[in-house]
Amino acid sequence: MKRFFGTLVCLGWTFALWGQGYDLPQKQRFPRVQLSSVEATEAFSWWSLEHAYPREIRWTHQASTESPGGWHHRYQAEFGGLPLHGAELVLFVDHAHRLRGAQWADFLTLPATLPPSHADAALWQDGVWNWITWEDHEAAHPRTWERYARHALTGDIIQQRDMLLHATDSIGRALVFRPDPLVRAGVVYGGAYIDDNDQNTAVLDPLRDTVAVGLTYFNGLFTLSNSAAVIQEFDAPSVSIPMQANADFFFSRAAPGFEMTNALYHIERIRLRLDSLGFGSLMTYAIPVDVNAFNGLDNSAFDRATNPPRLLFGEGGVDDAEDSDVIAHEYGHALIHAAAPNTVNGTERECMEEALCDYFAMSHSFRWDNWRYPFIFNWDGHNPFWSGRMGLSSKDYSQLTFSSIYSHTDVFADPLGVTMALIGPNAMDRIVLESLYNFTSFMTMPQAANWMLMADTVLNSAQNASLLHLNFAARNILSPQVGQQEDSQKGSMARDRYCTQDQAWDFTDVGGSAWAMDGRVARTWTAGEAVYGWELPEGAYLISRLDGTTFMLFLHP
């Protein structure tokens, strides 16, 4: 894989990859051109000479951002002096002044007319550009933010979107869940291990851990804020935020202060982790957090409408801020927004956003305990309140239609989570974070996978490229490359399997695990070990092998 990928970038192949439906198509190129500097103007000059695009288009420089891998220069396409919404160009220049990657909107057509005087932008919809005006509808208590796109000539609403993405210091102490009470106890939801409307403290309180947490000390009092997050009240219901002379914020999980300290602690850990991974400049603000929002509904969101953006956690079912998976997922939206602002456009791109945030939740949990880490929202979900989501999948990307933003999150989370388990969360987090800077509107999962391969190339000299590619190919997000065995990614190992209880399993040549549908690891094996169907009850199991392949196994008598 390393040899093939090196050939790909040297030749400078261009990929035109289209999303499902009518998303604005995107092109990619990985040219590896030596420049004299990392400046945006030089990279843009080379790209504009090499690639034909309508000369009526003007590209306006938006931002240049440095990451551990290099510089990422963003441009917005304009026509008639107004932006073509979601039409972007990203140019990636590494620290050795090499232009390593580019992604841009592929213009199949342009607006038919110049913009009316009152228009705000042109919106791509159903294969044509329409001049539109933006109209925001916002409300508080509970917090909502919807954006309407009205046709500039007729006034008709042609698009309606929910814009909420649905996570000096002193040292004090707090009691928190790490990562959640079920993992801490090694049990699944049920019996004594239930939320019970915050009442069963005798069972759950002993599962709290005492931790150090950053606080702010002012005028003799400690408050729940630090350089990563600040606990606030900006959505109903209104709950008093504790301020005290004692730096020990010890709350029973039945008290409102518990969710506050739990959220503050986990966000701080993620923020400090960014520093250790070399991405400390990604987040430049302490994010405001309301842990009892949405009038008590079972909902959480990242709100990018405010400055700075903020997080809201609901309390329906299991309190969302009690589950660090939910906290890490919502904060993941903030990370992606910081790296690639305002690029969550297109159904597949929105679905991928959710998948990436699910990955951040898996990684966060994995670092505490790898038991049941693919069961995302382990405490908040996978229970009578809602089913949660999975970070493993047996789906084939090429067969999918993206009808909603949550329809197939698992197909992209799967290769990320499987690779993380093999190379470790430090290495995988750096690859994912580095790739985010190059994300654009309407991009597809294969395009995102290519950016992750590029991230591994610039960060690790492509040492994980073969494994990454193998795991993306297992879900048919990428095609098998030269020198790889197709049978290990496609064919029977990527499809459902059926086995009687008197049969020996024929896939234990590689070590792995069988996951029961209630979240338990029902059986693990080492490479070459003999496993028979009679060792497990009949039913469905999710098989995860250490080579990255996953599939469903159905056992029957």
Helices and strands in order:
Blueprint: H1 2-11, E1 14-17, E2 26-29, E3 33-34, H2 40-50, E4 58-67, E5 70-79, E6 82-94, E7 98-105, E8 121-125, E9 128-139, E10 144-151, E11 157-162, E12 164-165, E13 169-176, H3 181-185, H4 201-204, E14 209-218, E15 221-223, E16 229-231, E17 243-244, E18 248-249, H5 256-277, E19 287-290, E20 300-303, E21 310-313, H6 324-339, H7 347-368, E22 375-376, E23 389-390, H8 409-423, H9 425-436, H10 445-460, H11 465-474, E24 497-500, E25 512-516, E26 521-525, E27 539-545, E28 550-556
Parallel strand pairs: 13-18, 16-19, 19-21, 24-28
Antiparallel strand pairs: 1-2, 2-7, 3-7, 4-5, 5-6, 6-7, 8-9, 9-10, 10-11, 12-20, 13-14, 14-15, 15-17, 20-21, 22-23, 25-26, 25-27, 27-28
Helix pairs in contact: 5-6, 6-7, 7-8, 8-9, 8-11, 9-10, 10-11
Question: What is this entry, summarized?
Answer:
This protein is α+β, with helices and mostly antiparallel strands.
What would your notes on this structure say?
The chain is an alpha+beta fold. Among the domains are: 121-162, no CATH class; 169-339, Elastase, domain 1 (Roll); 496-556, no CATH class. The protein is built from eleven helices and 28 strands. It has helices spanning 2-11, 40-50, 181-185, 201-204, 256-277, 324-339, 347-368, 409-423, 425-436, 445-460, 465-474; strands spanning 14-17, 26-29, 33-34, 58-67, 70-79, 82-94, 98-105, 121-125, 128-139, 144-151, 157-162, 164-165, 169-176, 209-218, 221-223, 229-231, 243-244, 248-249, 287-290, 300-303, 310-313, 375-376, 389-390, 497-500, 512-516, 521-525, 539-545, 550-556. The strands form six sheets. Strands 1, 2, 3, 4, 5, 6 and 7 form a seven-stranded antiparallel beta sheet that branches. The chain has a five-stranded mixed beta sheet with strand order 12-20-21-19-16, with helices on one face. Strand 1 and strand 2 (26-29) form a beta hairpin. Helix 8 (409-423) packs antiparallel against helix 11 (465-474), helix 9 (425-436) crosses helix 10 (445-460) and helix 10 runs antiparallel to helix 11 (465-474). It is globular.
